[in-house]
Every structure is written in structure tokens, then in C-alpha cells.
Amino acid sequence: MGRGTGTGRRVLAADRHWAGEARTAAGSAVLVLGALLGLDRLCGTLSPVRAACWAAVAATQLSVLHPPLVTAGEGWLASRGLFRERLVRTDLLASVSRPGGVAPRLVLRDVLGHRVEIDPRVLTANPLLWHQLDRGVRLSRRRGLLHGGTAALAALGDRIDGDGARALLGAAGLSPGGAERGTGPEPDRPVPE
Description:
The chain folds into two domains: 17-65, no CATH class; 69-171, Roll (PH-domain like), CATH 2.30.29. 46% of the residues lie in helices and 16% in strands. It is built from five helices and seven strands. Helix 1 (18-43) packs antiparallel against helix 2. Residues 178-187 and 189-193 have low confidence and may be disordered.
């Protein structure tokens, strides 16, 4: 990583799946626009006003589907959408919460009043982002700033650590149970007693 943001912050971790998700959002908006314009043209009702309306529909779809880019560095985490970037100081966190709702969210607030809302799946898919957040959380706890939300972070950390351990064992050719791959019974055959 190590790229700068143009604001003096050094990016140490970023969502590695963001580019693909952004391309998918843009591609789907272009497909919807093409389909609407093509259908309207086939019906013979396409006009500049209708084309502008269909373009507005596609732009709205893009703004809804476009994922925020989550980046992190030494003591900060940011979420940048199409129009705005929100940044929170992870080394000055005051609270962490997981509000109820349809979509899972993790809300981080710092003592400066800044707030960032991110999808926890971004952290589970990007261990480097989790590492930067965890470092800041530990520092906030040591400073006595962070009191609420530690249970949600601990559960998320356990999940990320467990996924990482399973991936490491799988890459090493070991099963999560500790036996080497190929030495145990085959999955289709019953275990002899």
C-alpha cells in the first residue's frame, strides 16, 4: 500500500475488493440505461427529455449501488463514497456500536465528534484494514477513551482471526482439525468403528 491520499495521510490498508464492486455497480447502471434507452427507442417514444429521465434513473442506481472505499492508516480509518469522505481517528475512539437493521453496520465515533459507518464484511474480507482498526482500538482503550462496543469488536476480531487461521492451515495443506490433508477418511466413506 503506502500510497498517499493527497491530504498528508498515508494509506496503509484499503478494501481490496472495492474496484470490482465499483465496476459491477457502474456496469449495472450502464446496462440499465442501455436497456431503457433501447426499449424506448424500439417503442418509438424516445425523446431528449425521456433520455434525460432514463439517465437520471441510471445515475440514481449508481449512487445507491456504488460501494464506499474504506481505507486506513496510522490512527485513522476513512470511508469515501461518491460525494463525501468520512474519517474517524481510531486512536481516539469514544464508541463503537452495531445498530440493528437489515444491513449489518459498524458505527465508529471518535472524541472529536467524527463518525464513520462501515460494513463489517469489509473488515472480515480485508485483514489489513482490521489490523489498523484493532491497533487504534487498543490505543483508545489504553487511553481510557473507548468504553462501549468492545464486545462487538471482540466478536468480530474472533471471527476474523478464526477465518485467517483456517485460511493459513488450508494453504499449508492442513485441515483446521490439525490432521494433514489426505490422511483422514474420505468424506464419502463412513468412518470405521
